[in-house]
Design a protein that fits this description.
Length: 405
């Protein structure tokens, strides 16, 4: 492929369909550079880090900060179109630094316990069985819609205490927020509708608490401190969004990888104890998040031969880091027995994904049951017709037509 690393267009349709060859070029260039990247419908001038060692180090580097008020100011300064309005967002664990981040994460951790996650296991198993019962052997269906998206939405709805009648609303709002094709106005409208519903949900849980995360968050404290209303809203919104799209993409891209690599699928059928390791390989091979969430330099940061000045925006490509040949042997090969499981798909450092155990559990359950119940998997369209989402942040399949029997 021609062109230099600096000419890679991270916002093009072709990049969304084949990011890996572009990232190879960027890693081989060996120089961290500025690119135009898009988040919340705003095109930004931002540095993009692609190598594994740099990515892992910077994910845990306190000089890369996330305080929302400073971040919004720098986003305005670095907007490709000066004066473009940046959507306001309340402070959350995802966009805060210590000590605020420490307090918010501890409060969330006190509610989102391993015990609560494990309690969901029987319910998740029943839900997967119910979804798979609706699959007619040999009949074509879209695995993304029927299973990969459906399961995590049901799980996060159950976790938060959201009625099933509102699950489609969340799916629609999140689709608008994640797409590169929707306008800033459309994103602000979806954001407003989601927060409006969450205010109602929180009010309902205050009146009638249940055995769910929202009720638990209302009562959770750390060092005598509880979440105020904006923090409760933003934390619930974070769980709602982070809790399903990434898991859905892990499931669908994992199924595609096994369809494209029948020998690897055969290994899992012969030895189901390999499934947990396969989940890690799904996450490495096609990270559900292309880019980490946005950070800014609180002070100058040296990356290789380049010093990124203070008050600059930085994106870290998890998708690229996970295919770095300097870290992973034969990185473009899919191998469920790969011993090196040090991917960064869940991040690293203080912002490591708090929902990782739940995502792994969902993956383990759904793949064990898919392999057990359906001995034959077939892609119902040519592989080159599979399209990936047109999104700068997520790496996921739009549709996956399959037949299973």
């Amino acid at each position: 492929m021609s062109g230099t690393a600096s000419e890679v267009d991270l916002l093009s349709w072709s990049f969304a369909q084949d990011p890996h060859s572009r990232y190879v070029r960027m890693r081989r260039d060996g120089v961290v550079r500025k690119h135009v990247v898009k988040t919340l419908a705003i095109e930004l001038n931002a540095w993009v880090v692609t190598g594994y060692e740099d990515a892992r180090a910077l994910l845990a580097d306190p000089r890369l900060a996330k305080d929302v008020e400073v971040l919004l100011r720098i986003m305005s300064e670095q907007a490709v179109n000066p004066g473009e309005k940046v959507a306001q967002t309340p402070r959350s664990m995802l966009f805060s630094d210590p000590p605020d981040h420490t307090r918010l994460r501890r409060i969330l951790g006190n509610a989102f316990t391993m015990r609560r996650v494990e309690k969901l296991r029987p319910w998740i198993e029943e839900t997967v069985d119910s979804l798979l019962d609706s699959v007619r052997p040999g009949e074509e269906f879209d695995l993304v819609q029927k299973i990969a998206m459906a399961l995590p939405i049901y799980v996060i709805g159950q976790l938060l205490g959201i009625p099933q009648s509102r699950h489609d609303d969340f799916r629609k709002w999140n689709s608008v927020l994640a797409s590169l094709e929707t306008s800033a106005e459309e994103k602000r409208e979806a954001h407003g509708m989601a927060f409006g519903y969450l205010r109602e949900l929180i009010a309902d849980k205050r009146r009638e608490p249940g055995d769910d995360m929202v009720s638990a968050l209302i009562g959770a404290t750390y060092d005598g401190s509880a979440l105020d209303e904006p923090e409760l809203l933003s934390t619930t919104f974070l769980l709602m969004n982070a809790g399903y799209e990434t898991t859905a993409h892990m499931i669908s891209s994992g199924v595609l990888a096994l369809l494209a690599n029948p020998g690897q699928q055969g290994l899992l059928r012969r030895d189901p104890t390999l499934v947990p390791g396969a989940i890690e390989e799904f996450l490495r091979f096609e990270s559900p998040l292309n880019m980490s969430t946005l950070r800014y330099t609180a002070s100058p940061v040296r990356v290789g031969e380049v010093t990124i000045p203070k008050s600059e925006l930085v994106f870290i490509s998890l998708l690229s880091a996970n295919r770095d040949a300097a870290k992973f042997d034969n990185p473009d090969a899919f191998d469920v027995t790969r011993p090196n499981k040090a991917h960064v798909s869940f991040g690293h450092g203080i912002h490591h994904c708090i929902g990782a155990p739940l995502a792994r559990m969902e993956g383990d359950i759904v793949f064990r049951k898919l392999l057990e119940r359906f001995p034959v998997w077939e892609l119902a369209v040519p592989e080159d017709e599979i399209e990936w989402k047109y999104s700068a942040q997520f790496r996921g399949i739009d549709r996956l037509p399959v037949r299973m029997s």
